[in-house]
Amino acid sequence: MNKPGVIDREGLNRLIQTLIGRGYQVVGPTVRDEAIVYDNVFSIEDLPAGWTDEQEGGTYRLKKRSDDALFGYTLGPHSWKRFLHPPERRLWQAQKDSLDFDIVPEQPDNTKYAFLGMRSCELHAIAIQDKVFIQSPHTDLHYQSLRQNALFVAVNCGQAGNTCFCVSMQTGPKVEAGYDLVLTEILDDSHHSFLIEAGSEAGKNILEEVKAGPAGAGEIKKAEEIVTNTAKQMGRAMETGNIKELLYENLEHPAWGEIAERCLSCANCTMVCPTCFCSTVEDVTDVAGDHAERWQKWDSCFTMDFSSIHGGAVRNSTQSRYRQWMTHKLASWQDQFDTSGCVGCGRCITWGPVGIDLTREVAVIRESTTCQEENFSGSEAQNENS
Q: What does the CA dihedral 85, 123, 114, 154 come to, rounded to 10 degrees?
């Protein structure tokens, strides 16, 4: 919306203070429990300066960098959905009086979040959750309230992890939409700065208050090079052409059984996924029976109870549950929401304890199907020639 500006580390600190001064609860990357997680940020001192992460299937490790980059990591286990669609929340409570129960619905949360350090894939994930919670026939008023009050300060990725495949999903690494402000961290031997751009009127107003300096042609070029180089570093890739038809036509493929032999049905992949939205409700009462509450909590299609109806569980095997998850994520999600449910962040690969790789499982089905088609074509040609 305006020309790029430049701020230094102190300018980034001013940005954080400006957001706090405007009533925002700033949430960003911090180091805790040997991982980079999202938590309250009050100054740049709370950011993971000099830390990066190493990721592989079933593996995550923090590692010190040789510099003081503030956003020099890929992604941790948290996604922003834990703030917009929290792991648990009360829906209503009821109190017994002399004759009846007085039911009090929970009011929407009006917290003003400013999310600092969002990546392009995460912005795409929120756009997908908007389709689920706001643009569907049944609007989630809690999510809608938090979403409307939120401000997004994104960061262009300066490195890709070994489990990243956002290029395949066309969701990154360059931040292109859905942000209020976007930063590109530029770090070399001579200086440490951030190219900053506004993507909304709210972002433009904040940028004016922060008083960024004008960006030079060299800084703009350097920022573009950083994103271009990151796009070349993807640790994974997934061919998405015709993927919906591929999965629909291979529901009985032997690969599902092979995956089930490794899958623990632990639901880690759905918990860390930034787009998974399944939930359940639980009713609790006090011992006297005078007070009751209904809570919404995250659930997963990998749990046995999730598909239970009066006759038992619809998907009572690990094979059927993994097939449901992957087919929904990559195929039927397109029918429901006109988009894939995967943004290529790679969290499910990293945080699944046995290292099941979504990109590899799709490739196995695709490769075997291609071989069958080639063998069939070869047989037909041979028959025609005989």
A: 160
Predicted local distance difference test score (pLDDT) of residue 371: 61
Per-residue pLDDT, 376: 43
- Cβ-contact 165, 120 below 8 angstroms: no
SS3 content of the chain, % helix, strand, coil (to 5): 40, 25, 40
- Residue 378 has a pLDDT of 47
Segment 281-293 mean pLDDT: 92
Measured distance CA(165)–CA(233) in Å, rounded: 9
- Asked if 333 and 339 touch (Cβ cutoff 8 Å), the reply is yes
CA atoms within 13 A on the CB side of 169: 25
Query: Above 70 in pLDDT, residue 21?
Result: yes
φ, ψ of residue 177 to 5 degrees: the values are -155, 160
pLDDT tens-digit readout, 233-255: 999 999 999 999 999 999 999 99
Q: Has residue 375 got a pLDDT over 60?
A: no
Sign of the CA dihedral 140, 114, 24, 33?
A: positive
| Cβ 57 vs Cβ 346: under 8 Å | no
Interior/surface letters 9-20, b for 16+ CB within 10 angstroms, e for the rest: bebbbbbbebbb
pLDDT of residue 3: 86
Distance CA 83, CA 85 (A): 6
Tokens representing 306 are 């999730």
Distance of alpha carbon 211 from alpha carbon 7, whole angstroms: 8
Structure tokens given for 114: 């400013």
pLDDT at residue number 98: 77
Q: What is the DSSP string of 106-162?
A: PPPP---EEEEEE-HHHHHHHHHHHHHHTSSSS--HHHHHHHHH-EEEEE--S---T
**Other residues' Cβ atoms within 10 Å of the Cβ of residue 269:** 24
pLDDT single digits (tens) 108-133: 999 999 999 999 999 999 999 999 99
Residue type, 59: T
What gap in Å lies between CA 126 and CA 133, rounded to an integer? 10
320: tokens are: 């059927």
